[in-house]
Amino acid sequence: MESVKVYAPASVANVGCGYDTMGFAIDSVGEELILSKRTDSLLMIKETVGAALSSDPEQNVATIAIKALLNALNSDQGFDVSIIKHFKPGSGLGSSASSAAGAVFAANELLGTPFSKTELLPFALEGEAFASGCYHADNVAPSLLGGFQVIRGYDPLDFFEVKVSSDLKVLIVFPDVQVKTIESKGLLPKEVSILTARNQWANTAALVQALNTNDMALLKRAIEDHIAEPVRKSFIPLYSDVKSIAEKSGSVGFNISGSGPSMFSFFSDDSGPKKMACEVKSLYENAGFHFKIYTSKIDTKGCKVIV
Ligand code: HSE
């Protein structure tokens, strides 16, 4: 194979209480990457569509991740890389993660799959770490592997999938302002009290149990964040109003997606997402904000070959 086109889904990280430790892929939006083998050893960003991304291979997460993979193989294969974004960087939907995950997945395909999908995660993580200034796999793991992924540890990387009911719906609201993860991380408290930590880790345990048992009441109680939401909500237009619309629409868990500004809301029925989408639309239209709404389910496939 000389060329491949792949799809990498967007993702929701943190899921409220699980800062840097959990995330899930969504099936409504993502990005495409086209990789072609070169006859030399260069890594080139050939084209980027839908976002102004760096064309410097030393500054682009896709080529940085590919380089990590090539180093592990001791390979000097060169690639041309084209990236077609269907959602904006800085939207809180794991844009750098989908580029990094898609890039290593595509390169691995062209190299004859020397690595399993799971084994590709550390390489994708190198790209993500460049973008956000630290190692966090809560976007890159779900984007690469699909599903709801929990990262138990980073040194060494230790992660597992939580099986989620296919009936769970997710509404994503993206108010069109940009939040850079690297900056948003810097605003978080460096230390938390033992009481805050206790509440937070109780919620993460409850969240996993709620998903395992499909307990929607517990899910709703568990998606509560004492660490990032209090700081980050102030950067999100009309956050409290959107949260209260979610509540009135029957949400079973609402919070910030990643570092924002997108927000996610879980629903167990079909009417809730429609009601919430309709009310958020009038809220933002009346206030003059640009926004996008994605009606999703949890994507279970992660990166896949499309051509
Ligand atoms: N866990 C990361 C953060 C996700 O909250 O900073 C960034 O999208």
In terms of quaternary structure, the protein is single chain
- State the total count of DSSP E strands: 11
Shape: globular
Q: What percent of residues are in strands?
A: 25-35%
Pattern of helices and strands:
EEEHEHHHEEEHHHHHEEHEE
Overall average residue pLDDT:
96
CATH architecture heading of the largest domain: 2-Layer Sandwich
Rg for CA atoms: 19 Å
Would you identify the regions where 5 or more consecutive residues have pLDDT less than 50?
none
Sheet with the most strands, sense and barrel status: 7 strands, mixed
* Count of helix runs: 10
CATH topology of the largest domain: Ribosomal Protein S5, domain 2
Helix percentage range: 25-40%
Euclidean distance between termini CA atoms: 11 Å
- Compounds present? L-homoserine
CATH class group of the largest domain: Alpha Beta
Number of domains: 2
Describe this entry's structure for a reader.
By secondary structure, the protein is an alpha+beta fold. The protein folds into two domains: 3-162 and 300-306, Ribosomal Protein S5, domain 2, CATH 3.30.230; 169-297, Alpha-Beta Plaits. Helices cover 36% and strands 25% of the residues. The chain has ten helices and eleven strands. It has helices at residues 61-73, 95-110, 121-132, 140-145, 181-186, 194-213, 216-222, 229-232, 239-248, 271-287; strands at residues 3-13, 22-37, 43-49, 79-85, 148-154, 157-162, 169-175, 254-256, 263-267, 291-297, 304-305. Strands 1, 2, 3, 4, 5, 6 and 11 form a seven-stranded mixed beta sheet that branches. A hairpin with a 6-residue loop joins strand 8 and strand 9. The protein starts with a strand and ends with a strand. L-homoserine binds at residues 13-14, 19-20, 92, 94, 136, 138-139, 181, 184-185, 228, 258-259.
